[in-house]
Design brief:
two-stranded antiparallel ribbon; 60% helix; binds zinc ion; three-stranded antiparallel sheet; 7 helices; elongated; 2 domains; mainly alpha
């Protein structure tokens, strides 16, 4: 390949800028980037995979929803969800109490699985999303922001609050005719937490986030380079004079 962009067979070398193209995650087709408006979708022409679906004010909406989720997290996990009254015997419990009960009863693996998927990972996901969204809103970014957003995407499949909700609904349906069910504060906080988590994921515009973080990192590197030049400039001038 020579410097004029031609190889030995005379074919032209084409260099693609990552910001000008999409790579379809399903069929690996390279597609030129097209600017589309919020509410529109860009789909792969070969397999139909959605490549881009911009959301208006994605960072602001995602940050507000993740912050709401964080505020609801503590009451949703620690306050009782339901009170069951079966023949005068009342029993109540929270998510934290159920995890503790599993661990104390000897179901260590199940207890840890529930602890991770219902408490630790959802909390970590909300915290990461809130911090990354705040960084994107302020047009800031660094390697740490990249690492945090990558970790959020990796953890996305491991938060299973929805599964816990299905378990609660199954309990309600099964015991509806046998017990008197009272919905406690924790239940409504949990519904709010679930809604905030699902909405924050749907408001997240990944392409916009990656581009914003990339631009912020580039700007930061440029500013740092300029600052270093200014710091070293006087000494260079002095050395040249000597
Ligand atoms: Zn495709």
């Amino acid at each position: 390949m020579d410097g004029k962009g031609q190889n030995s067979t005379g074919n032209k070398k084409v260099t693609l800028n990552p910001r000008d193209v999409f790579l379809c995650p399903d069929c690996d087709l390279v597609i030129p980037r097209i600017d589309i408006k919020p509410g529109e979708k860009l789909c792969c022409c070969r397999c139909g995979c959605v490549l881009d679906a911009p959301v208006e004010n994605s960072a602001e909406k995602t940050m507000a929803l993740s912050l709401t989720g964080l505020l609801l997290f503590v009451p949703a996990i620690f306050l009782p969800l339901l009170t069951l009254d079966i023949l005068g015997l009342e029993s109540t419990g929270s998510i934290y109490a159920s995890v503790k009960s599993l661990l104390v009863s000897g179901f260590v693996f199940t207890g840890f699985a529930v602890l991770l998927t219902s408490i630790v990972i959802p909390l970590l996901k909300l915290m990461l999303l809130c911090v990354v969204s705040a960084q994107v809103c302020m047009h800031r970014g660094s390697r740490i922001t990249v690492a945090m957003f990558r970790l959020y995407n990796r953890l996305d499949e491991w938060g299973m609050l929805e599964v816990y909700m299905i378990g609660i609904l199954v309990t309600i349906v099964k015991l509806f005719h046998m017990a008197s069910i009272t919905y406690d504060t924790g239940f409504f906080c949990f519904i709010g937490l679930l809604a905030a988590t699902l909405l924050s994921s749907s408001m997240l515009d990944e392409n916009y986030y990656w581009n914003a973080i990339y631009e912020a990192c580039q700007n930061s590197a440029r500013r740092q380079a300029t600052a270093e030049t200014l710091v070293h400039a006087p000494s260079d001038v002095v050395e040249e004079r000597i």
